[in-house]
Structure formats: C-alpha cells, structure tokens
Amino acid sequence: MSREQQKQDAAAKAVEYIPDNSIVGLGSGSTMYWVMQKLGELVRQGMHVQGIPSSPATEQWAKEFHVPLVYFSSDMTKADVAIDGADEVDPDFHMTKGGGGSLLREKIIADAADKLIIAVDQSKIVQQLGSFPLPVEITPFGWQKTARDIQSLGCDPVLRRDRGDPFETDNGNYVIDCDFQLIERPDELHHQLIQLIGVVETGLFADMADIIIAGTDSGAETFENKR
C-alpha cells in the first residue's frame, strides 16, 4: 500500500472522532489534506462543525472543501477536538512536529483542544525520536546567538532557508532544525530549549496526543493514550 493511501486511511479514521456541532482544531501537513477532504464530505452530508485553521494552507483546503471556519477570540478559546499530523511519534505518545513550519500555531490549537488526534502514515512511527531534525521556532533578532545556545545542548543546528533566504513562519519568526540524533527525554529537552532567550516554541509535543492513528498496509491502527 502506498504512503498516500496510508495517510488517507488514517485521515478517514481520525474524522470519526469529530462530534457533530463541534469546534475542530485543524493542523497542518500532507495528511491534513485528506482530513479536510473527508471532513468536507461529512459537512456536505449535514454535519455541523467549525474548524480553526493552523496555517494558510489548511485554511485554503477548508475553503476548497467547504468546511466552515472560526478563529480564536475573547469569546472562543477552546476546541472540542483537534486533528493533526506529525513528523515522528514514539511509543510513549511523544511527537516531533514542525516540518512545515507551523509548530507554534499547531501547539496553540493542540493545547486548546479537549482531545488531540494525530493521524500519520506508518513511516512516522518510531521507537525513539531524533531521526527527523527537531524544528525550533526562534526570533529573527539575534538568531545566531540563539542557535549557538541551542547547539550547547548537544545538537547540530541549521537555519531553515527558503530559496536562499531564511524561512519565515506565519508568525514572522525563523526555524532552526536541530539534529540531536536521538532524543531520550523529550519533555526535559523541551524545557531546556524553551528557557533559552530567543526560543519561541519547540516542535516537541511531549505526551500531548490522546489518540494516535497510523495508516498501515493492513488499514488504520488506533492507539489510545492511557495516562
């Protein structure tokens, strides 16, 4: 089975967790395209939902598939459920995210949701995080110093670029991709990084997922966090 088919299977299973008349946090990434397509089908069939998009790409998919959108406001700060993808997921429900550069908004939405559902293809399931460089969002001012401080924690930090220029997030920040090789204590590493001056957010989502859905050659497999 192709990786795209695995993503489609995981996405189809993930939307089953969306209740009618709910606010849904909408993550980013390639699997979310299939989530949005399936959610659009349910909306056409009569489901009433409103989605909070985490990126311009997700917002565009929502419009393409006619999924109603809503945005955070003083009167709306919670979501019933959020669905997102991940770059890596380990057996303890720790994740790395941010390959697309939307990690800060994705984490805000994940924190706002009563339940976080992660849909991935089988290749994203790993025994230990670290094969995928960890994205860290930082301020542009003094980014060289921030990168050096991050390096002191034991990684090879690389400034992400787009056509030669520094890649900018939707928040106007930079992203440092950090090769730690193996991340043994994700929660501890997150706290070390977030305390550094200039670090806005990290791509470590430690024990935040409630349900992981992995598309495999034999269909979608579901793993529930029993914490």
TrEMBL record:
Swiss-Prot/TrEMBL GO biological process terms: D-ribose metabolic process; pentose-phosphate shunt, non-oxidative branch
GO molecular function per UniProt: ribose-5-phosphate isomerase activity
Binding site for substrate: 28-31, 84-87, 97-100, 124
Gene3D superfamilies referenced in this protein's UniProt entry, alphabetically: 3.30.70.260, 3.40.50.1360
EC number(s) on file: 5.3.1.6
Gene Ontology CC annotations of this record: cytosol
EC category: isomerase
InterPro entries noted in UniProt: NagB/RpiA_transferase-like, Ribose5P_isomerase_typA_subgr, Ribose5P_isomerase_type_A
Pfam families: Rib_5-P_isom_A (PF06026)
Active site: 106
Pathway where it operates: Carbohydrate degradation; pentose phosphate pathway; D-ribose 5-phosphate from D-ribulose 5-phosphate (non-oxidative stage): step 1/1
Keyword field: Isomerase
Keyword Isomerase: yes
Catalyses which reaction(s): aldehydo-D-ribose 5-phosphate = D-ribulose 5-phosphate
Superkingdom: Bacteria
Protein role: Catalyzes the reversible conversion of ribose-5-phosphate to ribulose 5-phosphate.
Subunit structure comment from the entry: Homodimer.
Similarity section: Belongs to the ribose 5-phosphate isomerase family.
Protein name: Ribose-5-phosphate isomerase A
Organism of this sequence: Marinococcus luteus
